[in-house]
Amino acid sequence: MGLPLLSFIILLPLLGSLLSAVGKWEKGLKLGATGISMLQLLALIYMGSTFDQTSSSFQWKEEVTWIQLPLGSLGNFIIKYSLGVDGLSFLLIALTGLISLLAILNSHTITEKKSGYFSLILLLNAALMGCFLARDLFLFYVFFEFMLLPMYFLIGIWGGPRKNYASIKFFIYTLIGSLFILIVMLGIALAYIDPYETARHLGLIQEGQNFDLEALKNLQLSIANKEIASFDIVHSFDMQALSDVNNCQPSSILHPNSGWLLQGMSARMWGFWLLFIGFAIKLPMAPLHTWLPDAHVEAPTPISVLLAGVLLKIGAYGWLRTAIPFFPAEALESANIMAALGAISILYGAYNALAMNDLKKLVAYSSVSHMGFVLVGIASFQAEGWQGAIFQLVSHGILSSLLFLMVGVLYERTHDRQIDHYSGISKWMPRFTLISGIAIFASLGLPGFSGFIGEFFSLLGAFTSPHIHPAWAILGAFGILLGAGYFLWTFQKVYLGKTYLFDSSWQLTDLNRLEIISLFSLGILSIIFGIFPQLILDWSNSFVANFLTTLP
Amino acid sequence: MGLTSLFMGLLLFPWISAMLIAVVSSLPKQIIVYFSIGLSLLQLSIIGYFILQLGGESTSWQGNWFNVGDITFSASFVATSSAQLIALLVGIVALLVQQFSQSYLKDEPQLARYYLYLHLFAASMYLLLFTDQIWIFYASWELVGTCSYLLISFWHQKQAAIKAAKKAFLLNRLGDIGLLLGLMGLSMHFHTLEFSQMQVSSYGPAPILVGLGLLIGAMGKSAQFPLMSWLPDAMEGPTPASALIHAATMVAAGVYLGIKIFPITGEDLHLLMAGIGAISLLSGAVFALFQNDIKKALAYSTISQLGLMWMGMGSDASLLHLFVHGIFKAGLFLSAGSVIHFLHQQKSSHHLDSQSLSNMGGLRKHLPWTTLGYGIFAAGLMGLPLSNGFYSKENLAGLLWENAQNSPYYPIYWALLGCLGLGMLLSNWYISKQFYLIFMGENRQGLHFEKNTTWNFHQNLPILILALFSLFFWISPNVLHFQQSSLLNWFHLKTFEVPSFWLIISFLSWVLGLSLTWFTKAWIPLENYRFWSNFWPSIFELTHWKARWAYLLDSLILDRFLIWLAQLQVISGHIFAWADQYALDGILVGLNTKIYQSAGQLLSKWQSGKIQQYWIMVFITFGLFLLYLWM
Question: What is one Pfam family matched by this protein (chain B) (predicted)?
Fold first, then answer.
């Protein structure tokens, strides 16, 4: 088992959170939080350097039984504290580590209740890490819910004028999503058995003994023949067990042959769509996205960065980890609808962005549009599409963080985000114009930047996929044009042209050193990933290849 | 040095040059200029040496780039003879334009940025020319478009410039969607990502829909009908940059795409391409007649000449005209730049629009060398003997005539030949007219310029070099025949026999065009129409009428349509946003809206902001749902 590195990655910010909440620090708060974040990043780098990219199985596994619950005739319940990291997880935790560090570094605008703020931001980091590392669905759900609390307070306390509204809206939306997830989670855990734990319970294997494939098949056969007494059955939330439909009890409505229908949809279909919608709210997918612009507009800059850069990715991660592996046949059957929803998200988000006059809202709607590409890519069920979608997750994490930091730079100087209140600011802020130009061209999908690779492969997968109609890819391609439209329009209005400021007393000073470091490091990352996409694709490759071969 | 490393150096060097310019950007201007020109000269020498080393053969290089799923994306490059020829053109024009710019833009404070963009453009252009892999091709296609955006909006304080830049980028992007889908279709049809691996023998030519997508992409880049309206606007950029990008090289990328897909597409697509080219040839030429601004006239002339290349359907005839046109059109733009620069210098005393034909006339006395150069370039455009344009235009006619003899679609080829004749006539007219109006006669405003006594070396040198290249002997020592041309043989260009009757038609078009100029010399576009009543009113009325209609079609319908379409997008964006804010938001959350204000009393109790209440609501909903499940 080796080092409990994953627990360390989660516990480190938790500890920091506790310390900053109880201690009476004033000066050292930001320094301490930065130190913790950097330490975490070091751990991630160490993990990355010893990681086996060719393996699709989880590495650095940790597993401890957490709760054991005998439920009589319902069998036994086991909840495990089990962590693990594969290529997909690693990409997202690396992103989380990086974006958290940048968010903490750029937290200097927070002046009041600082200890609470840093405590919550570290708590959020721990919850995010836990979410991406959990291998147990229950544990995942706990972390998923846990994210809500710090986010709610971070927006609700340090937010803008309509912070109460925005934070409550965020809370309700996410909560409804997690209710959907909860229903499916309980249902599927009751319907499925954990063959390994059941075998252990029956005494077929000893602790630590390997469970070979043949024994697994035998056990699954005896479940199918109802040879195991119901009180001997062990249920768990282990995602791997839940991903194998052979573990389903034949008496359950979730069994493929159950014939149970509700509104013409089988229980499995219901399960898939509930999970899908639960995570779609997080992504966010149009028309379930309306919490996002409000949350972004009210949240302080570093929180916007974390929200767009990392939190949104949990939606797609949830699909890739739970919804699709649990119900693969149903997902394939729904591919066309998923692609349509993705294409609608792309266009709808882009149209909205076109109409925005608030810089932050524009970026928020562009996120809706960009995450639509992720959905289109996933719906293709092709290696290209999935790789593109995962790439887009990382790329959007980098670029949307860059865009929100960019808005933050302007907002910090003037406390105004209206696009038509600025014109020709390149005269005062040439460095800022340079990095904004990079951010904007990268976001509108210019080749050579990471945004292009993600959008391109998502569309390529969708276009060549036998599961969905190419029309959705063609519709999605028009999102590229609209994206260029609203981004160039913004660039032209704000940065170029005759100089004009709404309030002539505004002092627009160019970037300071911290801003240069944080903005340019993201811009350079985007260029590096745009030219050497294998730096990301190699990580996700074995996950994608392995998963797609298991599809029916 | 091995060929492979030379090839790689050729591809990488411009990128390194751009980075070096960025590094030294804070040095004094003069140093940057000479540094940049030096880099450019080195670049051209590498290309020249590379082509010599190849000895007319092609070479290729391939390396693994990355894998996605089962597909290997390799970085594959191939130096075909057509790519070598165009790269040579890019190298020559880029160097001369940089040399010209140092005088033209000597008062510009941000000269380093300008030179940086030029190097970036050259780098992307070489990538575009030499890549064999369709997605690197697409990427560099977008990159040259971005460089064009950056250069058009170089003077970003000018509102017109940034609008033009945005328009150019968006119209190009519209075309790029076609290209993206077309390339996807191409890779699916031929099961390969390399242009050179596409086997027509095993899979048949690409389907017409795929070809159409590719053509739409090429239309955007080459400013062909109907995506043409961005090019005249793009003249807001610095003139030397226009010479490089919007005249000689980037806009020819669309033709280069045509050349690339020529062997893998069917005749139906070739004819479609030629048809679009014919429309662009004629309408561009008519527009060029009706321009007051000399740069805009040249922009329409570029559209028209690119249309001519499209009529070559991507065959070797297209390639030859691309090369020849690149030389003389870059020359025309640089000469126009020289004229504009001269008038601009007088601006302090006269306050005049330095691009308007109305302020010109009689400039031969002040700019004798520019006049000489302009005359030679105009002769090239007209295709007069002793100029390089003669060969390429005759060659095009030969191609169409040969196809008219052998193809089942011969009526279309005859119609194309007719369009070619008419287009030549119009071209001869507008270019000789422009030459006359700028340099001949007396200044129409009666302005007295100080005689330009200083020999402007930096501007005249590039113009004269290009003029030298525009003469016949580079292509063939024989004035009328070029079948023995060593240049064409080196690059394996196929030539076509010209029927002797075509020489008579050409001759007639020159005579007629020049006489039209002579008879209409008093008419300046958009300024005075007095001659209408004096000379053949009906014919001019017709031309005028046609131009009006074409202009209406272009600016009112096509352009306006695109603007409307864009505006419609914004309006629908607003509608969506409104719906988003009031309807969707209102339905889903039930807060915040004016519609709901009437119900506000009830709802205001909701807005207490207490989490517990939301929890209760959520649990009631959840309970109702469970109830429904069990019922």
Answer: Proton_antipo_N
Average pLDDT over residues A223-229: 76
Residues from chain B that touch A494, judged by Cβ atoms under 8 A, are none
Instruction: Report chain A residues whose CB lies below 8 A from the CB of B71.
Output: 383-384
Determine, yes or no, domain membership for A225.
no
Beta strands in A299-432 (DSSP E): 422-423
Q: What would the pLDDT profile of B17-74 be if each residue is shown by its tens digit?
A: 989 988 888 888 888 889 999 999 999 999 999 988 888 788 888 888 888 877 888 8
Q: Determine contact, residues A111/A268, Cβ cutoff 8 Å.
A: no
Q: What is the per-residue burial (b if ≥16 Cβ within 10 Å, else e) of A319-357?
A: bbbbbbbbbbebbbbbbbebbbbbbbbbbbbbbbbbbbe
Q: Is A9 exposed, middle or buried (0-12, 13-18, 19+ CB in 10 A)?
A: buried
Pick from B146, B174, B570: CB nearest A355:
B570
Q: Is A419 on the interface with B (CB under 8 A)?
A: no
Give the containing element (helix H, strand E) for A465.
Answer: none
Q: Is A534 touching B (CB cutoff 8 A)?
A: yes
Q: Are B148 and B242 in contact (CB under 8 A)?
A: no
Does B153 sit within 8 Å of A534, measured CB to CB?
A: no
- Whether residue A472 lies inside any domain: the answer is yes
Instruction: Please give the biggest Cα pair distance in chain B.
Output: 100
Give Cα B188 to chain centroid, integer Å: 29
Q: What is the 3-state secondary structure (H, E, C) of B415-431?
A: HHHHHHHHHHHHHHHHH
Indicate if the pLDDT at residue B591 is higher than 70.
no
Q: Which two tokens stand for residue B17?
A: 């040059």
Residue B278, Cβ neighbours under 10 Å: how many? 24
**Which residue among A382, A447, A480 places its CB closest to the CB of B139?**
A447
Which of B222, B218, B226, B219 has the alpha carbon at shortest distance from B234?
Answer: B222
Residue of A157, A168, A537 to mutate, testing the B interface (most B Cβ within 10 Å of its Cβ): A168
CB contact under 8 A, A168 and B614: yes
- Half-sphere exposure in the Cβ direction for B617 (13 Å, CA): 16
Q: Which residue of B has its CA nearest to A475?
A: B177
- Which residue on chain B is closest to A424 by alpha carbon? B157
CA distance B516 to A163: 73
CB contact set of B383 (below 8 Å; sequence gap of 6+): B389, B390, B392, B393, B394, B424, B506
Contact B569 A351 (CB under 8 A): yes
Does A273 lie at the interface with B, CB-CB under 8 angstroms? no
User: For chain A, what's the residue count?
Assistant: 552
Tokens for A520?
């340019």
Does residue A330 contact residue A379 with C-beta atoms inside 8 Å?
no
| Chains A, B: CB pairs < 8 Å | 141
pLDDT band at B627 (very low <50, low <70, confident <90, very high): low
Instruction: Report the half-sphere exposure of B98 (CA within 13 A, side-chain side).
Output: 28
Nearest CA to A530 out of A451, A458, A477, A457 is that of: A451
CA distance A383 to chain B (A): 5
ipTM over 0.90: no
Q: Which domain holds residue A453?
A: 335-552
Is A527 within a domain? Answer: yes
pTM of the model: 0.85
The CA distance from A155 to A440, in Å, is 26
Assign B336 to helix, strand or coil. Answer: helix
Interface test with B, best of A433, A436, A492, A540 (most B CBs within 10 A): A492
Q: Encoding tokens for residue B150? A: 């950056």
CB B570 to CB A354 under 8 A? yes
Enter the DSSP assignment of A161: T
Q: Which of A352, A441, A544 lies nearest to residue B576, judging by beta carbons?
A: A352
Q: Which residue of A has its CA nearest to B184?
A: A460
Task: Kindly report the nearest CA distance between residue B222 and chain A, in angstroms.
Answer: 18
